[in-house]
Amino acid sequence: MDMLLPAKKQRTVPYLLSRKESTTMTFAKTFGQRHVLRFLSSHIDLSGCRITAASPVGLRVTDGVHQLCLKSTDGCIQREDNPNSVAPEVIEVYGSTARRTAVTKRGELSRMPRRLTLQQTVELPESLLRHFLSHPQLSDVDVHRLVDTGSVDDEAYTSILLWFLAAGGDGHRLVFGGCDEIGVYMELTLWHNTPHAEFFQFYLSDYPCPVCTE
Rounded distance, CA 194 to CA 171, Å? Predict the structure, then answer.
């Protein structure tokens, strides 16, 4: 008697859209696509987004209005302006009601990295985008630790700017403070105008005060 062998399972994973509805997603198939998918998941709030293959080493993410194509080259994430045409295979679909960013209460610091929306990402100026593609996003705890030292370099400050862009909606305030004999300083208030407000003044070590250097 011939034995019936079970059909080989496809490498798919269900993603819950609602209690009654689900969809099937295909894993990224190449190392480059998997690298990009991990980056997208850690840097961008993908709620309501659709991710498809853009090239053998790249992915395209869209929310129906904004679109971003990224590729993995020599272990680095880069923007892919003219991706090769490949079959429009769905890599992942994120439910529009999914919440994949840090959610905190007033006065509570999150250890989860803050993620930009897709719209914020595509609208970044070139200098900020290059930094965004090559550095991890900061959490509230990371920023608290950095500004509490009293001084940050240009690289750390750029990461703080990206954190603020992602987390500013939580009521934080980051403004230019001024300059003195030490240098240029910024002022950050966490939970501005609330009983939980926490104020920090920190210097930009790579930017001496222009008046004091004359």
Answer: 9
